[in-house]
Amino acid sequence: MVDNALVLFSGGQDSATSLAWALDRFDAVETIGFDYGQRHRVELECRQNFLSHLRASFEPWAEKLGEDHPINLSTLGEISDTSLTREKEFEYLKNGLPSSFVPGRNLIFFTYAAAVAYRRGIKHLVGGMCEADYSGYPDCRDDALKSLQVSLTLGMGTRFVIDTPLMWIDKAETWKMADDLGGRKLVDLIVEDTHSCYRGDRQRRKAWGYGCGMCPACDLRQRGWDKYQARRNATN
User: Fold this and answer.
1) Helix (H/G/I), strand (E/B), else coil: 225
2) In what order do the strands lie in the sheet with 4-8?
């Protein structure tokens, strides 16, 4: 029996690393991505470039990598008044959550992914969520996703497993995981062809990739890169 997975692949660093993890682990892997009216819509173009270059550069993985499922969820952006879906400042709100939090986003993503997986006979749903080093989104937490796994399994009458390989590691360890999985070639591909900047800036190139260098996503990615490089240099 084929052990297969469907990866939530946004086009960012975390989901790209999770995709590599899934390709290293499962017999067959498909991807799913969502257009939800995000400000950084450039990630949708980046995800296609990444998939194309991944197929061309990693032959064993290319044989496992199957269909991509782009999903239009623009209505989510229409009902979300957030700095990720509107031209608003990135700040912390009175409830303690960042203004970039899109309520229900990951819950909806996994529900749609489960519907696609149900149709295609896929058991494992893989996401790049992380509770150890993240922006504070409640739907990235381990408890929320374990609860959702139970609900999806019960609600659809089939067994689903939500895998989150990055849940308990920081961004430096995420870079290290990519290095361990695909070497410098994969790290370079993530630097060049993934996108995490909330402002969608592809004009400014940093050592860790493209971005404004000021938004919360860029800050996390840069700090992780710097720590990863420091640890790497210390062992060389």
Assistant:
1) helix
2) 65-72, 28-35, 4-8, 124-126, 161-163
Q: What is the DSSP letter of 189?
A: H
**What is the DSSP secondary structure assignment for residue 201, as one 8-state letter?**
-
Quickly list DSSP for 108-175.
Answer: HHHHHHHHHHHHHT--EEE----SSSS---GGGSHHHHHHHHHHHHHHHTS--EEE-TTTT--HHHHH
pTM (global) more than 0.90: yes
Q: Using an 8 Å Cβ cutoff, are 216 and 136 in contact?
A: no
Domains of the chain: which residue ranges? 4-196
Q: What is the pLDDT of residues 134-158, one digit of tens each?
A: 678 899 999 999 999 999 999 999 9
The whole-angstrom separation of Cα 61 and Cα 38 is 29
Question: Amino acid identity of 228?
Answer: Y
**CATH number belonging to domain 4-196:** 3.40.50.620
